[in-house]
Design goal:
6 helices, alpha+beta
């Protein structure tokens, strides 16, 4: 067995999508690239706020957080998203994120992060609404949720279900622009929040969504000894869309990789590494995605 690595998840930036590893290492991912790895050992808690888990607790394979109860509480104790860190002095931005027709959410992110939060969520298109202090941004977010009926969360299962059949660039930009116009015209905006003119940003090219085929399955969890391999055809948020021989498109939520030891799948006759011809089958639990009008099968 080769060297074992510990994945810290997907990272999005100006250079595209990368996988993070221990010791601050990163691997750039390119569409058409082959990806193949074998899972090793037990899944361990990843700790919180840069601190390792003091007991190296085991965590469930299906958890996207990869934290034990104590570390999860520590992480949320200093979380803007959980409203437990309200005196953050940074400037925040309010945004509209579009994931599919009629599928728009409102949210906030620190201005210094730029569009990273939108890329991490898999937003196909987005537009900024306003900028200002944290609590003003929070009040605006609540105002828009109540007045426009837009949520602050959309499940990843819903995002994945529409990714391969999106309307065109013009249609999605028009939907964001129309909601933006309604939002900035609402009374009751916090005085300290500056409105931002509408400029819709589209991420479909960055995600590699052009011509994306519907997914045939979604990885449920990783297991010791399991293998995941295929050709990367698209990535959105934490999701990697892999073209797997004899299976079709399988979606891997990279949050499920955190806490596992991973090694290159290249032994026992497998073809692995970064070979673009990689054709390793997925041997971890996968939930089949039902075709329209079809019946969902059992796990395979």
């Amino acid at each position: 067995m080769g060297r074992v690595w510990w994945c810290s998840g997907v990272r999005w930036g100006a250079g595209g999508v990368r996988l993070g590893w221990g010791e601050g290492r990163e691997s750039a991912l390119g569409y058409g690239q082959g990806i193949a790895f074998r899972v090793v050992g037990a899944r361990r808690c990843v700790g919180a706020r840069g601190n390792v888990c003091p007991v190296a607790a085991t965590v469930p394979g299906r958890s996207t957080q990869a934290r034990c109860g104590e570390c999860a509480r520590l992480d949320r104790a200093h979380s803007v998203a959980a409203d437990t860190f309200l005196d953050d002095p940074r400037t925040y931005r309010v945004y509209l994120a579009w994931f599919g027709a009629g599928m728009v959410k409102v949210g906030i992110t620190a201005e210094e992060r730029g569009p990273a939060r939108l890329l991490e969520q898999g937003a196909v298109a987005f537009g900024w609404l306003g900028r200002g202090p944290l609590m003003a941004a929070r009040r605006c977010e609540e105002l828009l949720r109540a007045a426009l009926g837009v949520p602050d969360r959309i499940a990843y299962a819903e995002k994945r279900a529409v990714r391969a059949g999106l309307p065109g660039v013009a249609e999605r930009a028009a939907e964001v622009a129309a909601l933006h116009a309604r939002a900035v015209a609402l009374p009751g905006w916090p005085e300290s929040l500056e409105r931002i003119d509408c400029e819709v940003v589209d991420h479909a090219e960055a995600f590699g969504l052009a011509g994306l085929a519907p997914a045939s399955g979604v990885v449920v969890e990783l297991v010791d000894g399991g293998v995941v391999g295929g050709r990367l055809v698209a990535a959105a948020g934490p999701d990697l869309h892999l073209d797997v021989a004899a299976t079709g498109i399988v979606v891997l939520d990279t949050r499920l990789m955190r806490g596992w030891g991973l090694t290159a799948a290249g032994s026992d006759g497998e073809r692995g590494g970064s070979d673009p011809a990689v054709s390793v089958a997925v041997t971890v639990p996968v939930r089949q995605v039902p075709r329209p009008g079809g019946v969902q099968d059992q796990l395979f």
